[in-house]
Specification:
This protein is mostly helical and 232 residues long. It is built from 13 helices and no strands.
Length: 232
């Protein structure tokens, strides 16, 4: 058996498993959570993760799964791919395929933020015009805030500038991504919390309705975090 035929067999096995895991409830959950996914089977994330564990890491399998176009197969691809083998070109190809927040956020949170080109792509994508490509930039920034333990404060201060620049985009999934990135940046440390709060206050006073929403959403989250600290 050649390497290609072996990967093809794994793809067939994976798709068969995903079809077996499909339930009407999980199909309904896609619409319930605002995930307008093409070619979706309706499989819970828990079952996709279990299948990923069974298959194990494989860059070649991830590429083949992504090419199927199946929503759950692409989710699976993000879990089995090997971050150290992901190229900037691959990140670009996959980003251009994003058509809903579920696949966008999962790929960024589970794979892309661990790749060598993560910061470069976050900066590029935050300035994009396509809705889910732009969402990906802020999903990356939010994910890096949680996962990149070695990044300097200066990196995130640059990210705050991207947030403030783009907060006026009133598209639902963009502004929610911007808010997510702002709120997650504030959790890094006291310095970044102060800087994030300052950005949030400026946005909350903006003439832009979208920017005001982002700022107020972040300030509300910060107040809740302060309340939890006082109670603990």
């Amino acid at each position: 058996m050649t390497a290609k035929s072996g990967v093809d067999a794994q793809v067939r096995e994976a798709l068969a498993s995903l079809e077996a895991y499909s339930t009407p409830k999980d199909v309904g959950n896609l619409a319930r959570f605002g995930i307008n996914a093409k070619n979706a089977l309706g499989v819970s994330m828990a079952n996709i993760q279990a299948l990923a564990m069974r298959l194990g890491p494989s860059h070649e399998l991830a590429a083949a799964l992504w090419k199927t176009g199946c929503y759950e197969a692409r989710m699976l691809a993000s879990l089995v791919d090997e971050p150290e083998r992901v190229t900037a070109a691959q990140m670009e190809r996959w980003c251009r395929d994003f058509d809903n927040w579920g696949i966008c956020d999962t790929v960024c949170f589970k794979l892309f933020d661990r790749c060598a080109h993560a910061w470069q792509k976050a900066e590029e994508w935050c300035g994009r015009s396509a809705e889910f490509e732009k969402r990906a930039g802020f999903a990356m920034l939010a994910s890096l805030a949680g996962h990149d333990k070695d990044a300097t404060d200066e990196k995130f201060l640059e990210g705050l500038a991207w947030i403030e620049r783009e907060a006026g985009d009133d598209r639902n999934f963009v502004k929610k991504g911007v808010s997510w990135a702002l709120r997650r940046t504030a959790t890094r440390n006291a310095k970044l919390r102060e800087a994030s709060a300052a950005v949030a206050r400026r946005l909350a006073a903006s003439d832009s309705a979208s920017a005001r929403w982002v700022g107020k959403d972040a300030l509300s989250d910060l107040k809740k975090a302060d309340a939890r600290k006082r109670e603990s």
